[in-house]
Amino acid sequence: MAMLSLIIATIALAGIATQSLAASRTDQPITTGMPARFQLRPWSWPVGLFALALIGTLTVLPLLALVTTSLVPAYGVRLSLTTLTLDNYAEVLFRQASTIRAFVNSFYLSALAALVLAILAIPVGLSLRSLPFRLRQALNGLIDLPYALPGIVLAVACILLFLRPLPLIGSLYNTPWIILIAYLMRFAALALRPVDAALGNIPPQMTEAAAAAGVGSFRRLVTITLPLAAPAATAGALLVFMSAYNELTVSALLWSNRNETLGVILFSLEEAGLSTQASAIAVITVAVVVALLLLLDRLKDRLPANVLPWR
User: Fold this and answer.
1) Which residue from 75, 130, 140, 248 could staple onto 275, CB 3.0 to 4.6 Å apart?
2) Is 159 helix (H, G, I), strand (E, B) or coil?
3) Number of Cα atoms under 13 Å in the Cβ half of residue 115
4) Average pLDDT value for the chain
5) ABC transmembrane type-1 domain location, by residue (predicted)?
6) Measured distance CA(33)–CA(10) in Å, rounded
């Protein structure tokens, strides 16, 4: 397993090196403006209908399949008024302690990972920006590597790293902390990339003018850099939370008794042939994420600009 993981990591490193080489040729700030508009003219309706059909096929139909499966007593039963049941939801929400525990574990682990990475993103981004370009590209590649690797490879690496007794704390294996550390490693790139882009787009004239006016470095950081980079850090934290909340491949090897995550419970139910209960959990998970998105969208006028990635 370790040798196979090493081979996969080598392939991922080659891909990251290629991406870094391509990015090094275009290391310029991105200027914003009106997006380009293409006049489709007579093709407007056909292209629009095709886009709607594609969206429906890729998103709406799978969701409908989940909902209908969660409302029948057994997989393969046709949904009708006589077969309609909410027993699957009652089972996973009120009768299975492991499912409720998984919801709580996933929420706290993903929220804590998002908070930690949001706090670290700006200091780390500033530190990387102060390094020589080639060294910065190399470190960016190392940050991207855990996200580029299959989650199970990262899980094996965490097991090998934290299984042996560690100084003072012993072993982190079979604890929720190893899952949290794996989340921090895997999703660091999601938190750092928006901040790095925001820092790169801060006009140097602003900080130079402030320095010329006698403003100290700490005050420049607080009054210029942080306000401009904070929305990007918040957007990255949202991406981390939504990605970690539904994660499976990392926690599949790292979970332990009473430390289950939603992905682990869902996969276990599906493997046990309880597809209807697994579908109920999936529908609830989608509903939680959609509710969070709608709540944030309602608060968009009270949030700084560019915080929400979809706006």
Assistant:
1) 75
2) helix
3) 7
4) 84
5) 103-296
6) 39
4/88: higher pLDDT: 88
Residue 24 has pLDDT above 70, yes or no: no
Q: Which residue stretches of the chain are H helix?
A: 2-24, 44-55, 61-70, 87-90, 97-129, 133-148, 151-162, 176-200, 204-212, 217-220, 226-245, 251-254, 262-271, 275-298
* Residue 141: strand pairing partners: none
CA-wise closest residue to 112 among 222, 244, 10: 244
pLDDT at 31: 52
Cβ–Cβ under 8 Å, residues 70 and 86: no
- Please say if the pLDDT value at position 119 is more than 90: yes
In order of 78, 209, 296, 307, the CA distances from 293 in angstroms are 32, 39, 5, 12
Domain assignment present for 98:
yes
Structure tokens at 308: 């929400």
Burial status of residue 120 (CB atoms within 10 A of its CB: 0-12, 13-18, 19 or more): middle
Report the domain count for the chain: 1
Find the domain containing 73 and state its range: 61-302
Residue 90 within any structural domain of the chain: yes
This prediction has a pTM of 0.83
**CA atoms of 98 and 107, how far apart (whole Å):** 14
Q: How far apart are CA 123 and CA 117, in angstroms?
A: 10
Give domain status of residue 16, yes or no. Answer: no
Query: Is 21 inside any structural domain?
Result: no
Q: Looking at residue 192, which CATH number applies to its domain?
A: 1.10.3720.10
Q: Which two tokens stand for residue 190?
A: 């999601």
Amino acid at 146: P
